[in-house]
Design a protein that fits this description.
Number of strands: 7
Radius of gyration: 16 Å
CATH superfamily: Spore Coat Polysaccharide Biosynthesis Protein SpsA, Chain A
Helix content: 25-40%
Number of helices: 6
Strand order of the largest sheet: 3-2-1-4-6-5-7
Shape: globular
CATH class: Alpha Beta
Number of domains: 1
Amino acid sequence: MTPVDVLVPVRAFADAKRRLSGRLDADGRQRLAEVLARRTIEALAGHRVHIVCEDDGIETWAADLGARARRVVGGDLNSAISEALRGVAGRVAIVHADLADPSALSDVLALTGNVLVPDHRGDGTNVMVLEPACRPAPAYGSGSFARHLERLGEESRATGTVLRVVHHPRLGLDIDTGRDLDHPIVASLLAREGICAIG
């Protein structure tokens, strides 16, 4: 397995997952965010993991897990990723830290070419792997998958590199809405971690 530089954006756990406030209290949201991020980093063993953050607590947390922290200036996700990408010359992946089951990440990172893994709704981009010749401007937010597909498609054609779209039943499962908490994989994770959802 050839190691890949992997950027994992992680925000302060106390501020994470506010969209789940109708189903999880503040402690539950914080614990869930930390569990998901930790599991994602553990699944990336053997790769060079860079935690993209702007928080002292997250930087310390990353160091405790053996990951590098890549501090960025405050801003939205796209500006943070753009800043973190500077200076990363080789093959690079951007992986969200809220994957319910990140166990297949190494399988996807082992694929050749550029790779996009959309979320299970076909709306967001859970994993993006870029060949060195391709650096499309990040376009995260609602509808990011379509924008990334267009931008990375253009760069792939221009550079003669392959673009693969992988619809993965597990890597596509992120936790963004209260309904996601009811998915069997997520419900099982909550039970194992002792995190109680409301309703």
